[in-house]
Design goal:
mainly beta; about 110 residues; Jelly Rolls; single chain; 7-stranded antiparallel sheet
Length: about 110
């Protein structure tokens, strides 16, 4: 049984090549989801956004292509390819695509 899905195993891949968004879209691809962790690839076209929300788990974004704007508890962070940002559990956050961009989102949930 594979715990990581929707991506080839035992193959070297470029993560940014695994997902694409057309203009006006946000596309997501779930790679893993269980009680402890969620691993999701996202592709945003320029100008798209995910409005303010929060999570019960810590959320870490790893930008793999382009530039994204993340607002965490009112503070803005500009992240480019290679950057990582942790958005703590229960703090409001939002995502805005300043240009086309792609990210890997990892959320680690409490098991209490």
């Amino acid at each position: 049984m594979a715990f990581i899905k929707n991506i080839d195993h035992e193959t070297v891949l470029n993560l940014a090549d695994q997902i694409h968004a057309e203009p006006g879209q946000i596309v997501s691809k779930t790679l893993a989801q269980n009680k402890a962790v969620s691993l999701t690839l996202f592709a945003f076209s320029k100008g798209e956004e995910i409005s303010t929300h929060d999570s019960i788990g810590d959320a870490m974004v790893h930008v793999i292509d382009g530039v994204g704007q993340f607002t965490v508890d009112g503070a803005e962070h500009i992240c480019k390819a290679g950057d990582v940002l942790v958005m703590p559990a229960k703090k409001p956050h939002a995502v805005f695509a300043k240009e086309d961009f792609k990210m890997l989102l990892t959320v680690v949930f409490p098991l209490d």
